[in-house]
Design brief:
- By secondary structure, this protein is of the alpha+beta class.
- The chain contains 26 helices and 24 strands.
- Strands 1, 2, 3, 4, 5, 6, 7, 8, 9, 10, 11, 12 and 13 form a 13-stranded mixed sheet that branches.
- The chain is elongated and about 105 Å long.
- The mean pLDDT is about 80.
């Protein structure tokens, strides 16, 4: 067997060496296509791998809620009430365990004070209060601490390894962190001393739930008012069916049916529902489906898109199929040089089966070599690929089944690309081959089909249309902006360390007064939820005349200068004043429409009854602003009510358009911040950059398609060269005779190019309906999208026609100018 493959290897080398240019084009097309498809598959596989690292992921579910009013779906949220976990675990058989997480506050400031150094202060954004069972059920690996006892007592905290490095230095593994104290601050509840109970390995990037800090859930009763009796306070979060702001995860027994559990959970919630007009239906989600198939309000992280993963998988397959088709065409052309070899082998009693075996073995050897080079190329280019997409993806480890599964590619590739040329050459007749009169016209239909597939139905046109659409949609969203002015606006994250005698509003006014004399500062304001955050409070309100008609709105708390600073356009009414704004609210156009007002002016001075926490204050509408995009253009406009009662929030500093240096302006703000908000980190970013981050997944999608498209164009050029070369070889006698009879170069050009141009036009005609359906389906996921017009499909077709015509003209003119004596020499 080894000797046989050794002989096949020598034959492969001789054939490559005999025609190096054609061999290089053939193998390079296959190599580039394989590398591109492997990179695309790796990204798609990474997106599909979310949350599969947990030991219990197949039995771990998240519970989410859908809220209905008067039978209509009002909102879908990932939040549930705190009592849900303990209740379902106690009353529904088949639930092995549960854990809950709540953010409790938007952010936390943590301070570590050692005896011999300055305090180390950081703002922690990815932090939750959680039940202790998360350690086992979410697969946390503690490098310090006891996993059986950690997070069971109040005021305990777990840190990730990267967080431990921030506070205790890179040599923290040589220290005993258990028992060390960290000072905790949040805006609402003041300060508290937490004891470190453990350190866990950083959460993998492919987890929908990301956190650096975990506080014990048993700490939450310490934040409740002391007037509440101790026993009631301790049990509050286990029995409260109050506001939903908890994530709830359940571990199901292998023997139970998830659908049955979902029905029982909904029935249990119905028993505790006191508002029959507000129906809540709970749905359980497999944890591995959350990243790609869940896009609700209050998600723990930005979700991915199953639709995009499907498209990426398709483009990876198309790129590989185009490379295979090109390889097959070139193999047929190259096989014409071996017909005499085939004839001689047949003379010496070689059977068709032996010939097929030989050609398939040679193809397999080449495919394995190409795959090994492709894996090495992917390994070398992987950092560049991830940097280009701006994603954190690790190259698959040698133990990864996906990496070993790649070795199936040469087997499939051999069958796809090697079988057809082998069968074709094995059918060659000895007499015809020895006379050098080869006619393979009976296989023209198959080869024409390959060309149509490469250029149209499965190839370049399809990819060009999708790429043009993706790029235009992303550009449309980025250029559209948010509908408000975010230029030159700096956001300083909300301060958490505040003295009891000075509230946030007073400190904000002090910061504003400190910066007013500086010409570069145009305004200073604050808001709890900035555009692009995708977060806000939910609130229910009803018109004064219809108190039973409760509707759901987004609640955003603002400073009196916020709407002016972002340039919100008033359709009616006026802005908040610098004085008292008690009992007043401003709504957006969508909220006015939801309330039933046809014109914004009709909503002025109307009264809303706000249902919140058991009290129903009456609020007067004093203004209506135009809709703007609080989230990306993927989402429709939502009804928003702006409240002036801002008790904490992110500080916005808008700079003027003058010549001042931005870095100098930032330093001026930093100095003022340190005076007004001491002990608070100065963490800032620019609003426009933050808002554009929402489109990162769409940008990555467009970039990945762009890679596949340019690779497909490269391979298509090689495919065109293959087709033209094959045509010219088969028609060289005809070209010579026509030249002898006086045919001009232009007439030969028309004669030899019309078929390929016809195939190109056919590819465009056949691919356009499929391309239209695919891009329409993709755009359906955006509330605001580009319009599909004829140019979007005409431009790719014209590009392909131009490419085909250019390649045809170059090859054909060269053949038409050849000396007919040399062409007819062998006849």
């Amino acid at each position: 067997m080894a000797g046989t493959f050794n002989n096949y290897g020598k034959t492969v080398w001789r054939n490559v060496h005999k025609n190096p240019l054609l061999s290089f084009i053939k193998l390079m097309g296959l190599l580039v296509g394989t590398v591109a498809s492997m990179l695309i598959f790796s990204y798609a596989a990474y997106e599909a791998s979310y949350d599969t690292f947990q030991p219990q992921y197949q039995h771990l579910y998240r519970v989410v809620s859908r809220h209905f009013q008067q039978g209509e779906l009002q909102r879908e949220t990932a939040f549930t009430v705190p009592a849900l976990g303990p209740a379902v675990a106690a009353e529904i058989p088949g639930i092995i365990d549960y854990f809950r997480l709540t953010a409790w506050a938007q952010s936390y400031t943590m301070k570590y004070q050692s005896a011999d150094s300055d305090p180390i202060i950081y703002k922690e954004r990815q932090a939750y209060f959680s039940d202790a069972s998360i350690i086992h059920q979410f697969g946390l690996h503690l490098v310090q601490g006891n996993p059986e006892r950690a997070l069971t007592a109040p005021a305990e905290v777990l840190l990730s390894t990267s967080t431990a490095t921030r506070y205790f230095g890179s040599d923290w593994p040589r220290k005993e962190l258990i028992g060390q104290s960290l000072e905790y601050h949040d805006t609402y509840h003041g300060s508290l001393q937490f004891t470190i109970a453990g350190v866990f390995k950083d959460i993998p990037e492919n987890a929908h739930l990301q956190f650096d800090v975990l506080f014990s859930h048993a700490t939450l009763p310490l934040f409740l008012p002391e007037e509440i009796p101790p026993k009631q306070r301790a049990e509050m979060f286990d029995v409260s069916w109050g506001p939903p702001s908890w994530y709830t995860y359940l571990v199901l027994d292998k023997s139970v049916t998830p659908e049955t559990i979902g029905e029982r959970i909904t029935a249990l919630v119905k028993e505790h529902n006191t508002d029959k007009d507000n129906v809540e239906m709970l749905v359980r989600q497999p944890i591995q489906d959350i990243h790609l198939y869940s896009n609700m309000q209050d998600e723990a992280s930005a979700p991915g898109s199953a639709n995009q993963v499907t498209f990426l998988t398709v483009i990876g397959c198309l790129t590989l199929f185009i490379a295979w088709g090109n390889y097959t065409n070139l193999s047929v052309i190259k096989g014409l040089n071996r017909v005499k070899e085939v004839a001689l082998r047949k003379v010496f009693s070689a059977t068709p089966r032996q010939l097929i075996k030989q050609f398939m073995a040679e193809a397999f050897i080449l495919q394995v070599i190409v795959l090994l080079i492709a894996i090495a190329s992917v390994w070398l280019t992987f950092p560049l690929f991830t940097d280009y997409l701006n994603v954190s993806i690790q190259f698959p480890k040698t133990s990864n089944p996906l990496l070993w599964g790649l070795f199936i590619i040469p087997v499939l590739s051999t069958l796809v690309t090697g079988l057809y040329p082998a069968l074709l050459l094995s059918k060659v007749k000895v007499q015809t081959a020895l006379k050098n009169k080869i006619s393979l016209s009976q296989d023209r239909m198959f080869r024409s089909g390959l060309v149509v597939f490469q250029l149209g139905l499965g190839g370049v046109l399809l990819l060009l249309v999708i790429t043009f659409t993706a790029v235009r949609q992303v550009k449309f969203m980025q250029d559209q902006g948010s509908g408000v002015d975010m230029q030159r606006t700096m956001v300083i994250e909300s301060p958490n360390v505040l003295a009891q005698e000075a509230d946030f509003a007073k400190r904000l006014n002090a910061l504003r007064a400190s910066l007013e004399p500086y010409p570069a500062v145009q305004s200073v304001t604050a808001v709890d939820f900035i555009p692009g955050s995708g977060q806000s409070w939910n609130i229910q309100a009803a018109p004064e005349g219809s108190p039973d008609k409760l509707l759901t709105f987004r609640q955003i708390n603002v400073d009196f200068q916020y709407l002016e600073t972002i340039g919100a356009h008033f359709l009616a009414g006026e802005d908040f004043s610098s004085g008292s704004n008690e009992g007043k609210v401003i709504i957006n156009r969508r909220a006015a429409q939801v309330l039933g007002y046809r014109e914004p002016q009709q909503a002025l001075h109307e009264v809303l009854k706000i249902s919140h926490g058991g009290w129903t204050p009456e609020m007067e509408i004093i203004g209506v602003v135009e809709n703007y995009f609080q989230q990306s253009l993927q989402h429709a406009f939502e009804p928003i009510i702006f409240f002036p009662n801002l008790s904490q929030g992110n500080v916005l500093v808008k700079f003027s358009a003058g010549p001042e240096n931005v870095s100098q302006s930032v330093e001026r703000v930093r100095d003022a911040w340190a005076m007004v908000f001491p002990d608070n980190p100065f963490d800032y970013f620019f609003l426009r950059d933050f808002y554009q981050q929402q489109y990162q997944a769409d940008v990555q999608f467009a970039k990945t398609f762009r890679i596949g498209t340019w690779v497909a164009v490269f391979i298509a050029i090689a495919g065109l060269i293959a087709l033209i070369s094959f045509t010219l070889i088969n028609r060289r006698k005809e070209i010579g005779i026509r030249k002898v009879l006086g045919a001009s170069v232009s007439s030969l050009l028309i004669l030899l190019t019309k078929r390929t141009l016809g195939l190109t036009i056919m590819a465009g005609v056949l691919a356009t309906p499929l391309a239209y359906w695919l891009v329409s389906r993709w755009l359906d996921h955006y509330a605001f999208r580009i319009e599909l017009h004829a140019l979007l499909f005409a431009i790719p077709i014209l590009c392909i026609l131009g490419l085909v015509l250019l390649t045809l003209s170059f090859q054909t003119v060269r053949a038409a100018r050849a000396n007919p004596v040399n062409i007819l020499h062998d006849e």
